[in-house]
Amino acid sequence: MAATSEKEIDNGKKSHGRRKSEYGGHHTNPWLFSSMIGLFAGLIWGIIRWLFYEMKFTIELPGLLADPFFKSSYLKTGWGIVIGIASYIVFSVLAALLYKVLLGRLRGPWPGVLYGLAWWAVIFLLLGPVLGMSRQITVAGWNTLFSELCIFLLWGLFIGYSIAFEFTDEASREPMGAH
Q: Which of 17, 85, 166, 173 is the most buried (most CB within 10 A)?
């Protein structure tokens, strides 16, 4: 038989392999969790952006965020696409951490959708054309604008709702077996 801890003896329960945090509450490191959400958001939506580019839904390179640092001709190569997805991952991790700081206490999907919309506006309407990362809105075309908008809305939803669900879900803080 497995040895029982003093706390389990005092409570009259056996843990059956459960961690202490299941009895004491919910202990998620918010910075590590937000970074992981950003990593997966960047990987998933970076690959989807690449697929959209390959299927000609968008004319913006997958390495859009790396454009100020690399030549566009290089970003069209295989390694350039890898760098583009990697730059999107780094951007997503930073964006997820920023979301946690600014909007982490908000519930539901809408703050994340609006967050994605804000980043789309910054990248495709404000800073992107000025820095040469993206084309002017009048040159990009409707397919590119709507495709990128949809990707950024879903990207923001993924980040926002994942963080909101983890840090505002009160039911997850209940001890196991409590009703």
A: 85
Is 6 part of any domain?
A: no
Structural domain for 54, as ranges: 29-166
pLDDT tens track for 36-55 = 999 999 999 999 999 999 99
pTM equals: 0.79
Give, in order, the Cα–Cα distances in Å from 149 to each of 5, 48, 80. 54, 13, 23
| Spatial distance between the Cα atoms of 145 and 52, rounded to a whole number of angstroms | 12
User: What is the number of structural domains in the chain?
Assistant: 1
Query: Is 17 inside a domain boundary?
Result: no
Q: Looking at residue 105, what DSSP letter applies?
A: T
State the number of CA atoms in the 13 A half-sphere of 133 facing the CB: 20
Dig out the tokens for 67 from the structure. Answer: 């454009």
What is the spatial distance between Cα 121 and Cα 130, in angstroms, rounded to a whole number? 13
Position 14 in a domain: no
Structure tokens at 111: 């703050």
Read off the pLDDT of residues 78-115 as tens digits, 9 standing for 90 and up.
Answer: 999 999 999 999 999 999 999 999 998 899 999 999 99
Is residue 144 situated within a structural domain? yes
